[in-house]
C-alpha cells in the first residue's frame, strides 16, 4: 500500500492550524489524565485554556528522561492500562523506562514508518534486510511493521554471523539494507577484505540510529553500488521515521504531523536563533498512550531554514551533531554517563574516577571504561577485583546490549589520558 | 474553508466552549461527536452568529465572520439545519423551501432558484408529492428532509447539520445520511453534529470529539472508530466520559 503523503505539502498556515488543534487536544487530555503533567502545569500556574497559540507551548516546562524514570511504572500513561496493547522497555539508570502503545498508536507508528521507507525509495517490490543490534529491538519491530505495511518483504536481524548475513543477502536478493552507518561501513570493509563482491541486488541502504560523514557516505555508495538515505527518530517519543531524507539528501524532513519540534539552548532553555545548533525538543501530537510534552531529546541539531526544493513544507533539521546531556550514541544505542555511574555504583558501592574510551575498529565502536585505582576499590585478592570488574561488564551488557571492557589503571595515567573529560575517542 | 481558533462562548458566567480550534477543508465531511451538553450545538450556533462568541476567531474562506450578523453569514455560504428541524409549521412545504433562498431573490434570477427547488424535489421526491401540504402535517422524517432542503435552497458552500437523525426511524436515518453523502459527493462541504457517533464516524472523513466544551481528540474517522476511548465513551462499550 502506498502511503498518503499529501500532508507533507500542507501550507504554513495549514501547519499552524494543525499544530494548534492537536496541541490543544493533547494538553486537554494530559492535564486530565496524567497526574505528572497536571502537577507540572499547576505548579507553573498554567491551565489548558492558556494554550491559545503555538507560542504558548513555551510556557510549559520541559520533560526529561529523568522524569520518565521517576514516573515508572504507570504514572505517565494517558490511557487506562487495559488499553495498552504493547509495552516496550529500555534501560534507565535505576529503573527501566517504559513506553506503552494503544492499538491506535501502533497503527500510527506503522503508517509513519511506512512513509519514511517510501520516501526513502522503498517499494512493495523490495526485499529488506534489517541489520541492527538487539539494543535497538524497539526499532527493529517498528521498521519491520512499517515495511510490511508497504507490502515489502522483510528479513529481520536474527542472530547470525556476519558471513551468514552476507550469504542471506545474496541468496535472497535483498534490495534494501536497513542498518547503522557503522555496521554498513564494517560490512563494506569486510567484503573488500575477503574479496566478496557487493550483491548486485542491493540498491539502497537506509541508515538509522546515527548520522554519517559525507565522505564516508560517498565512499560507501561507490563501493557498494547503492544509493543511501538517512532516517532519524527518538525511541521515547514516536519511533523511527520522525525525520527522513528526501531525494535531495539535504537534512531530515521532520514528520511534523506527529509532533512539534523546537530547538533550544540546553543551558537557557530558550529558542536558539533560526539555523543555529541547539537541543531538539519534541512535543508529541499523535501519541495516545504516552504523550510527551516538550521532551528534551538530548540530540543537538539545527533547523535548515531554506525551503527544500522537493516541495515538502515540513521543517528540516541537520544531522545530529552531538549530545546535550552527556550521552553518546554507539551504533544507534544511547549510552549515558549517568547510567554508567549508576552501574559503577552497583559494582563498587561508590563512583570511582573513570573515563569512557571509544575506539573505532573496523568502523564498529569498541567501548572500554578505564577506572582509576583507589583505596576504596581494594579487594583482598586479584580474583576479587576481577570478579567485580566482570560484574560491571555483565551489568553493562545487560543494560545496553553492548560490550564494554573495564580496565583498572593508575590515577595519574587516567588523568593524563582523559585530560578532565569523561568521554574520549581513541584512534 | 472553515477555520476556528480558540473559540470561547459563554452562557452567562458559564463557558460552554473553551478554546475550541478546528478546521474543515473544502469537500470534506467533518463530524463533531460528544455527549449531551458537550457544546456541539453551541459551536454550530456560534459559527452562525446566533450566539456571539466571547473570544476567538472564525474564518470562512479566509475571511473573519465571527463579528458578522447571521444573515451575512448565510449570504457568504454557510447554512444550518438546526436540531429539531425548526421548520415553519403553518407554511406549505414549498413556501418553507422558498424561504431558504430568501437572501438570493434580490441578487439572482428567479430561474436559478427554481432550478434549485427542482433539485431539492429530485433529492426528496416525497417533498414534491407534498409541496402544497402544510409543513406541520409532515412526519418527522419528512420534516427533516424539508429542513435539509430549506438549508440547501440557500446555496451553501458549507452545510451544517445538527443531529439530523434525532428521533427518526432507522430506515429514515439511512436515507437522510445517504442524502448527506450524495450532497457531499456533488461537492458540498459538510459539518455534522451527531449523537449517533457510529453513524457519524462511518459517514465522515474526519472527526472531532468535544467534551465539556473542549476538543479532547480528533483525527481520521477510521482511527477514531478504532480508538478505545471512543469505543468506550461513544460506541457503547461500557459508557463513561473519557476525561473522567
UniProtKB/TrEMBL annotation, chain A:
This is Phenylacetate--CoA ligase. It comes from the Bacteria. Gene3D superfamilies: 3.30.300.30, N-terminal domain of ligase-like. Residues 151-283 form the AMP-dependent synthetase/ligase domain. It holds the Pfam family AMP-binding. It comes from Thermodesulfatator autotrophicus. Residues 338-419 form the AMP-dependent ligase C-terminal domain.
From TrEMBL, chain B:
GO terms for biological process: L-amino acid transport. It comes from the Bacteria. SMART domains: AAA. Belongs to the ABC transporter superfamily. Keywords: Amino-acid transport, ATP-binding, Nucleotide-binding, Transport. CDD domains: ABC_TM1139_LivF_branched (cd03224). It comes from Thermodesulfatator autotrophicus. Transmembrane segments: none annotated. GO terms for molecular function: ATP binding; ATP hydrolysis activity; branched-chain amino acid transmembrane transporter activity. PROSITE patterns: ABC_TRANSPORTER_1, ABC_TRANSPORTER_2. Residues 2-237 form the ABC transporter domain. This is ABC transporter ATP-binding protein.
Amino acid at each position: 500500500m502506498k502511503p498518503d503523503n499529501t500532508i507533507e505539502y500542507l501550507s504554513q498556515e495549514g501547519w499552524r492550524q494543525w499544530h494548534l488543534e492537536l496541541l490543544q487536544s493533547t494538553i486537554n487530555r494530559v492535564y486530565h489524565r496524567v497526574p505528572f503533567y497536571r502537577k507540572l502545569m499547576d505548579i507553573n500556574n498554567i491551565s489548558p485554556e492558556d494554550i491559545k497559540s503555538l507560542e504558548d507551548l513555551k510556557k510549559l516546562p520541559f520533560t526529561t528522561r529523568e522524569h520518565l524514570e521517576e514516573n515508572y511504572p504507570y504514572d505517565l500513561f494517558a490511557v487506562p492500562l487495559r488499553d495498552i496493547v504493547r509495552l516496550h522497555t529500555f534501560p534507565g539508570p535505576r529503573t527501566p523506562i517504559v513506553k506503552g502503545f494503544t492499538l491506535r498508536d501502533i497503527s500510527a507508528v506503522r503508517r509513519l514508518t511506512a512513509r519514511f521507507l517510501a520516501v526513502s525509495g522503498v517499494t512493495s517490490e523490495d526485499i529488506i534486510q534489517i541489520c541492527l543490534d538487539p539494543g535497538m529491538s524497539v526499532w527493529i519491530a517498528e521498521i519491520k511493521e512499517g515495511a510490511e505495511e508497504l507490502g515489502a518483504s522483510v528479513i529481520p536481524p536474527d542472530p547470525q554471523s556476519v558471513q551468514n548475513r552476507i550469504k542471506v543477502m545474496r541468496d535472497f536478493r535483498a534490495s534494501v539494507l536497513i542498518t547503522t552507518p557503522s555496521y554498513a561501513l564494517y560490512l563494506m570493509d569486510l567484503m573488500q577484505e575477503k574479496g566478496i563482491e557487493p550483491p548486485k541486488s542491493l540498491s539502497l541502504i537506509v541508515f538509522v540510529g546515527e548520522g554519517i560523514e559525507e565522505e564516508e557516505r560517498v565512499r560507501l555508495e561507490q563501493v557498494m553500488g547503492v544509493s543511501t538515505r538517512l532516517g532519524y527518530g527518538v525511541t521515547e517519543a514516536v519511533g523511527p521515521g520522525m525525520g527522513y531524507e528526501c531525494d535531495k539528501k539535504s537534512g531530515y524532513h521532520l514528520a511534523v504531523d506527529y509532533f512539534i519540534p523546537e530547538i533550544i539552548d540546553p543551558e537557557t532553555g530558550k529558542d536558539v536563533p533560526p539555523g543555529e545548533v541547539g537541543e531538539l525538543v519534541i512535543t508529541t501530537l499523535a501519541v495516545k498512550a504516552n504523550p510527551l510534552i516538550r521532551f528534551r531529546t538530548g540530540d543537538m541539531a539545527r533547523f535548515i531554514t531554506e525551503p527544500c526544493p522537493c516541495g515538502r513544507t515540513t521543517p528540516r533539521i541537520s544531522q545530529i551533531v552531538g549530545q546535550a546531556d552527556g550521552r553518546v550514541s554507539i551504533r544507534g544505542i544511547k549510552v549515558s554517563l549517568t547510567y554508567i555511574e549508576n552501574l559503577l555504583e552497583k559494582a563498587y558501592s561508590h563512583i570511582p574516577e573513570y573515563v569512557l574510551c571509544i575506539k573505532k575498529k573496523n568502523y564498529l565502536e569498541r567501548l572500554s571504561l578505564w577506572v582509576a585505582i583507589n583505596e576504596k576499590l581494594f579487594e583482598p585478592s586479584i580474583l576479587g577485583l576481577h570478579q567485580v570488574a566482570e560484574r560491571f561488564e555483565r551489568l553493562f551488557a545487560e543494560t545496553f546490549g553492548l560490550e564494554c571492557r573495564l580496565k583498572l589503571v593508575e590515577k595519574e595515567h587516567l588523568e593524563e589520558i582523559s585530560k578532565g573529560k569523561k568521554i574520549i575517542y581513541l584512534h | 474553508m472553515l477555520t476556528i481558533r480558540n473559540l470561547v462562548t459563554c452562557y452567562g458566567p458559564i463557558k460552554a466552549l473553551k478554546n475550541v480550534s478546528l478546521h474543515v477543508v473544502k469537500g470534506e465531511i467533518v463530524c463533531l461527536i460528544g455527549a449531551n451538553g458537550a457544546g456541539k450545538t453551541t459551536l454550530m450556533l456560534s459559527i452562525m452568529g446566533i450566539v456571539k462568541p466571547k473570544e476567538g476567531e472564525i474564518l470562512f474562506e479566509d475571511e473573519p465572520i465571527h463579528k458578522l450578523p447571521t444573515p451575512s453569514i448565510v449570504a457568504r455560504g454557510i447554512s444550518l439545519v438546526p436540531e429539531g428541524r425548526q421548520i415553519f409549521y403553518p407554511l406549505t412545504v414549498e413556501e418553507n423551501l422558498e424561504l431558504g433562498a430568501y437572501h438570493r431573490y434580490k441578487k439572482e434570477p428567479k430561474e436559478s432558484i427554481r432550478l434549485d427547488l427542482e433539485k431539492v424535489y429530485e433529492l426528496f421526491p416525497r417533498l414534491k408529492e407534498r409541496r402544497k401540504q402544510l409543513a406541520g402535517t409532515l412526519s418527522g422524517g419528512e420534516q427533516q428532509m424539508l429542513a435539509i432542503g430549506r438549508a440547501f435552497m440557500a446555496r451553501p458552500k458549507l452545510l451544517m447539520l445538527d443531529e439530523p437523525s434525532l428521533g427518526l426511524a432507522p430506515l429514515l436515518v439511512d436515507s437522510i445520511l445517504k442524502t448527506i453523502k450524495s450532497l457531499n459527493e456533488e461537492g458540498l462541504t459538510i459539518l455534522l453534529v451527531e449523537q449517533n457517533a457510529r453513524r457519524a464516524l462511518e459517514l465522515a472523513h474526519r472527526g472531532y470529539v468535544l467534551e465539556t466544551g473542549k476538543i479532547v481528540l480528533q483525527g481520521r474517522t477510521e482511527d477514531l472508530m478504532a480508538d478505545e476511548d471512543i469505543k468506550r465513551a461513544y460506541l457503547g462499550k461500557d459508557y463513561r466520559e473519557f476525561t473522567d
